[in-house]
Structure prediction request, 197 residues.
Amino acid sequence: MKIILATQNKGKIRELQDLLVDEDIQVLSLKDIEGWEDVEENGETFADNAMLKARAAVEKTGLIALADDSGLEVDALGGRPGVFSARFAGEPKDDERNNNKLLQLLRDVPEDKRSARFRCALVVATPDGREFLTEGTVEGRILRERRGSDGFGYDPLFYVPDYSRTMAELTLAVKNKLSHRGQAFRKVIPILKSLKS
Ligand SMILES: O=P(O)(O)OP(=O)(O)OP(=O)(O)OC[C@H]1O[C@@H](n2cnc3c(O)ncnc32)[C@H](O)[C@@H]1O
Ligand SMILES: [Mg+2]
Prediction:
């Protein structure tokens, strides 16, 4: 079985490839596809956007596609950046500027009001038109300075109380164990298995 990861994000590709390593599935990503043009992510929810990306990848490749749409919801910002997480500080998307903007906006927000969560929607779409959605969430809070150098995106600012570490201080294996993406992915396994047979 061969699937296409419908993402261009290197951090996601690394995590998803690691999650898929024992599954006996050949994995391609959009990086392997010539002439791929990003779809407009104009959905209102992570699920909508994951669906758009998965469908576009199936159409382009004819393969089963796995798409991830994810982001950060900060309570003190009314749930922002949410579906706008990648481009929070404008185009082109840039993790460094996004984190700076987040720190700036939360400058005067006290410790007990800095709660946040990562959300992930994964969609599996098949060439014969079937679609499956799974979701995952992880709770945490936003620090006042970056810690750690692993991961991507908002990981250096996202503190996970259960592990007393930021996401960027966790190994890939531990992040995958607890993360929004890891949780959503574990629900995808039985779906992929059912498509194999
Ligand atoms: O659309 P694709 O090609 O998959 O890549 P993207 O980076 O644009 O991905 P999204 O549209 O889903 O935007 C998600 C953003 O949310 C943030 N994000 C998502 N998951 C994250 C994680 O595990 N750790 C840190 N930040 C994350 C990060 O800034 C991402 O760029
Ligand atoms: Mg995107």
